[in-house]
Design brief:
Blueprint (H helix, E strand, L loop, with lengths): L1 H26 L28 H30 L1 H24 L6
Amino acid sequence: MGSSSLIVLFFAGVAFAAGGIAVARLFVKGRKNAQKGQAYECGIPTTGTPWNQFNVGYYLYALIFLIFDVELVFMYPWAVVVRKVGMAAFLEILVFLFILFMGFLYAHKKGALKWM
């Protein structure tokens, strides 16, 4: 019973997405325009090629930011129930923060947090 409802849900999702695309293709008049294909950057006309290479350090810096930013999503529910759960929750969050801190030290040691 459970797997059949999952299959129905999957096909319903695919049909919903495909239906939206089909309706858009039928009713929307698409015109090719060179200006529509350009990148929009704060109203300033673009110059040069859009295929610029960036330093991989910026990418790593952003990923590390996301990792430490998402940790707050896990800490909020903990803060809500810490009094009900007691010392076990406190020890678990200490282990969690220790693992995050070790990841931070590793990233710092590898130089991933240096901007240039």
